[in-house]
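Before relying on records like the one below, remember that each one covers exactly one chain. Contacts with other chains, cofactors or solvent are not represented anywhere in the record.
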Amino acid sequence: MFNRRTLLVAGTSAGLATVLYGCGQTDDTPEASAQTVSGDAGADAGDVALYDGSTIEPINNEAINNPDGFADRPLGGVDADVTLIEYVSPTCPHCANFHQTVYPDLKEAYIDTGRIRFIARPFRRNVLDLAVFMVAEASGTAYHDVLSAYMAQQNDWMSADNPREAIFEIAQEFGFTQERFEEVLTDDAMFDALESMREQALDEFGLVGTPTFYINGQRLEGNATFETLSEEIDSRL
């Protein structure tokens, strides 16, 4: 069973990253609070207002847009008509593949242009996921940059003799000290928030694996290629 002490001592061997659930079908400083909700975007693309990585209030009353635990940190258009939610796991190879092969085109065509609102929502499968998500959330508006860094280097830190130390080495690139890293990994509120998000995804949204995508609340069936996502998005614009 997971507990807070698990995160502090984990990482001396890859065995501690045993997958418990299948992978299938603020402030910019690390000291930023994970629970602070900021309302508005801080960037724009021409006349299109874009989110800046801050947390937001739920966009409406639909359950899928009201996550338990952490508030969402979207990218894309503040006034977008289409919301794409990805339930993501940093240790899931399918998630890493999506972020390396599909996400760049999606970002260029739909996110950076403000045509959609994109949310990468945490779903922990194991203790290493918890550590990565805690680091990402504690990084404030750098959340997406941190998550992208772990996705891009997934093979390296997951196959390391000491995955926990490898996770810390990446965290250092975003300003984490050893002391701050230890503090984040033993944060009770962050731990509880991630567990609540996991339980809600399983119990309310029928999650069966990662990555799982929801477009305007409807779960996407089949593979999330750029072509399939484009078709689904365009049909709603």
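Strands lie at 43-45, 48-50, 75-76, 82-88, 116-122, 212-215, 218-219.
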